[in-house]
Design brief:
179 residues, alpha/beta, Rossmann fold, 6-stranded mixed beta sheet, 3-stranded antiparallel beta sheet, 3 helices, 21% helix, binds inosinic acid, binds magnesium ion
Length: 179
């Protein structure tokens, strides 16, 4: 593996402002209702922990783990459930929490799949969004921050399983690249 160095793109203070804003929107939109917040592992775990502690409407927490396969030139992918939810979402308000939307294929396929379980409503909250990379129409209902087409790590996001624990969102650059 090429050695990578990192620089901060979004610091922890900015991230907390973003989480506060998102939780405010969610609390307002779901006032008087219960939600099932479903974190998509592993990337969402830190964002999820921050977000749900700011949510004041009645909340059930669950997690799923999925992996996506993109077939050749096709613009559709297949999402495979690695770990399914434990709760039954039939008739419930579901809020999916993801770390980042890139091509959008993971979310789009996951939404299709969850709709088959007949939730009362299904919305998506993402920490980060790379709109330039989109290959499907999908739009998250709650977006923390739109970012340029850079590969980021930290705050739950990884490169080959590493850097998830960094408290700030950082850009990876090849060693010797511009600082
Ligand atoms: P999509 O299906 O292309 O939208 O892929 C979304 C998934 O790709 C995310 O849940 C992340 O796991 C991963 N991903 C996309 N962009 C980044 C990035 O910049 N850093 C780390 N992981 C990323
Ligand atoms: Mg992920």
């Amino acid at each position: 593996m090429t050695h990578m160095v990192k620089r901060v793109m979004i610091d922890r203070a900015k991230i907390q402002e973003m989480v506060d804003r998102l939780a405010g929107e969610i609390n307002r939109d779901y006032e008087g209702q219960e939600i099932i917040v479903v974190g998509i592992l592993k990337g969402s775990f830190i964002f999820m922990a921050d977000l749900v502690r700011k949510i004041t409407v009645p909340t059930l927490i669950d997690f799923m783990s999925v992996s996506s396969y993109y077939g050749g030139t096709k613009t559709s992918g297949i999402v495979k459930i690695v770990k399914d939810m434990d709760v039954n979402i039939n008739g419930k308000n579901v809020l999916i929490v993801e770390d980042i939307v890139d091509s959008g294929l993971t979310l789009s396929n996951l939404k299709d799949l969850l709709y088959t379980k007949d939730p009362a409503s299904l919305k998506v909250c993402v920490a980060f969004d790379k709109p330039d990379r989109r290959k499907t129409e999908i739009r998250a209902d709650y977006v923390g921050m739109s970012i340029p087409d850079e590969f980021i790590v930290g705050y739950g996001l990884d490169y080959a399983g590493r850097y998830r624990n960094l408290p700030d969102v950082c850009i990876l650059e090849p060693d010797g690249g511009k600082k």
